[in-house]
């Protein structure tokens, strides 16, 4: 599974785009709340957003550790987009700044390469590590049911009912994308593959009965 984009929605669910083993582009609009570990992984990108968007808190600073903790009160990273491959691979961070006026300023950091001699960003290696941590949590959400709460109306297993805590999730292989897609379709999740919206299998079953 090759994560291309990931974003937490205002409802705290996940929208992710990835390439599967057949090189298809798959878009998944999750229906379950994201786990606190995914939120923490994105939160670790906030200092990078401050540097890359030249926020005042990053003035005269050099390293991630130099950014004050208070930055998390005014900046938020809601998603990222990975581009290119190999030595040109990099990321664009998407976030926002909460203004004193109570309004929100949307931020989009310039595309930043992870491994490039000409890249001026001092913390590029730390940025790459932080993105890999985010990718891991995104894959856990998609393939290992690592959610904060499984919503009662949209369980992935018919046997699961009520609010189920999913804080303790064992490691799971990431090669289960197709199985996840089938379960997600059964549960009514919105999935798009190569630009084509897949019809929920639950609706197909109803049509067959009719």
Characterise the protein shown here.
With 210 residues, the protein is α+β, with helices and mostly antiparallel strands. It is built from five helices and nine strands; from the N terminus they run βββααββββααββα. It has helices spanning 36-43, 46-52, 124-143, 177-186, 201-209, and strands at 2-8, 14-19, 25-29, 75-83, 90-98, 104-108, 112-113, 190-193, 196-197. Strands 1, 2, 3, 4, 5, 6, 7, 8 and 9 form a nine-stranded antiparallel beta sheet that branches. Helix 1 (36-43) packs antiparallel against helix 3. The longest helix is centred in the middle third of the chain and has 20 residues, at 124-143.
Give the gist of this structure.
It is built from five helices and nine strands, in the order E-E-E-H-H-E-E-E-E-H-H-E-E-H.
Topology:
Elements: E1 2-8, E2 14-19, E3 25-29, H1 36-43, H2 46-52, E4 75-83, E5 90-98, E6 104-108, E7 112-113, H3 124-143, H4 177-186, E8 190-193, E9 196-197, H5 201-209
Antiparallel strand pairs: 1-2, 1-4, 2-3, 3-8, 4-5, 5-6, 5-7, 8-9
Helix pairs in contact: 1-3
């Amino acid at each position: 599974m090759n994560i291309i984009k990931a974003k937490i929605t205002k409802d705290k669910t996940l929208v992710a785009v990835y390439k599967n083993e057949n090189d298809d582009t798959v878009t998944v609009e999750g229906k379950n709340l994201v786990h606190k570990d995914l939120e923490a992984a994105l939160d670790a990108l906030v200092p990078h957003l401050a540097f890359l968007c030249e926020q005042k808190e990053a003035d005269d600073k050099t390293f991630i550790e130099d950014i004050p903790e208070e930055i998390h009160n005014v900046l938020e990273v809601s998603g990222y987009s990975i581009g290119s491959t190999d030595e040109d691979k990099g990321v664009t961070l998407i976030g926002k700044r909460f203004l004193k006026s109570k309004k929100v300023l949307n931020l989009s950091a310039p595309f930043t390469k992870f491994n490039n001699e000409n890249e001026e960003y001092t913390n590029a290696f730390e940025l790459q590590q932080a993105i890999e941590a985010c990718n891991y949590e995104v894959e856990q959400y998609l393939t290992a049911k690592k959610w904060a709460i499984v919503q009662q109306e949209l369980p992935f297993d018919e046997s699961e009912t009520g609010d189920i805590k999913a804080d303790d999730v064992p490691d799971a292989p990431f090669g289960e994308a197709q199985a996840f897609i089938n379960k997600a379709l059964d549960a009514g999740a919105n999935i798009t593959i190569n630009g084509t919206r897949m019809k929920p299998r639950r609706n197909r079953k109803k049509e067959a009965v009719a």
